[in-house]
Task: structure prediction
Amino acid sequence: MRAVLFLNTMSLIFASAFSGFPSTSLSAPLDSIQFGIATAPAQTEDGLDDIWSDWAKQGKISGFEETPDAAARLRFFSNPEPELDAVSASGISVYRLGLDWQRIMPEKDRFDEGAILHYRKLLQKIRGRKLKIMISIMHHSIPKWAQVGGGWLTDRMKIHFLAFAKKLIEEFHDEVEWWATFNEGNIFVSLAYTQGLWPPGETRSPLSFFSLGPFRGDAIHAMDRMIDAHNELHTWAHSKFPGIKIGLAHNMARYRAKKWKDRLTAFALDRILNWHMPERARNHMDFFGFNYYGAEWMKGSQIDIDPEEEYSEAGRAIDPNGLLELLREISQRFKGLPILITENGIADSTDWLRPAYLIEHLKAVEHALQEQIPVRGYFVWTLSDNLEWSDGYCPKFGLWSVERKNGLLRTPRASFGIFQEIVKTRMVSGELRERAWALVHDHQGKPRPFCRADDGVTALPLPRERPVSRKDWRFNPRRS
Result:
């Protein structure tokens, strides 16, 4: 369905200046949050000679060689205007992006001033559109020279990261409202150094996540180095720029199991992956940012693709109730700390599920606000279909589709218009919610693309078919 519901091509720009986080007084259910869209440089920028380019050359990115113009990604570095035009049209107030570490720091002791100037002009373009900026300092990519040196498996990496991060803050602190030091450091460590699915492709026993007193595995050490760097940067930045806002963009899932013997695995993953890093950063966060895509159903030690559940094309189980559960736990652990949902979205090329997905997760946010949980931001992942790391271009996360066979032609999906309407009205109407679920209901049992094998891990170069689930996965606070 390519017609755009509620599409308003005029830019919807907030006129009032932003100062700190918005208040909690509500005139509409979602008045107290900033809406945003999130991206990453390794997924959108052209002209990169990075670890992901090398990973593709090694045949490790699913379907990359068969994808038209794959290396161009979204040409955001050379031609950001198409993306920024669509961002402006969405009506959001915050744009989250990253500045590529390899491009700015091509060698460990050298910064590329030309790249810094290019990014300065880009940030000024974004601000010129009356958008606020969040910068992700490390978003799943490190320089090739740092990877050769051992990456986050070595103590030297903290020194390299701090040199890069301090340079960014010194150069761009006047342009940026929020800084997220690490995007999903827990996932990067797991997939790069334990499961071997991301560069450099190292594999280790699950015992690398073991932590008991002084006995800690390599994965735990790597995550601890990241948080030590985060904490040190936070202290340094506040000494130089007292009003700065630094936090994380941490991946969190609802780890679940249907059999009692699998619940221990789910419990362990929750403790290690969800909470180990944030707890170590407890006193060094100005906001708690987290990315939420859904549930991970466990079967033994593996993620299970359960035929009864509904999934995104990328294999994340849809679970809006889990968002409220995590918001409650975050607010209890870190009382009073502003919370930003720095990513939430679904890979869904059909756009049958995305409208209801966004709406049901925003209903969870509404409920959290009613409980006085300090949610201050909601960022959709993402604007345009892009390179989904080792999964390649198969999963389609964009509010806009991208035709790679047609010069990266962008077309807004119906869900983009629905998102526009929600941002404009600051609420989800009952009629809109019913219509979005009717779209899901009408397609139940019909095949849709799925980019994950049954093992829950293997990425497929081309999608297979999987029927739309008949499960009612709508948000229901009585089940949370």
About this structure: DSSP finds 14 helices and 15 strands in the chain.
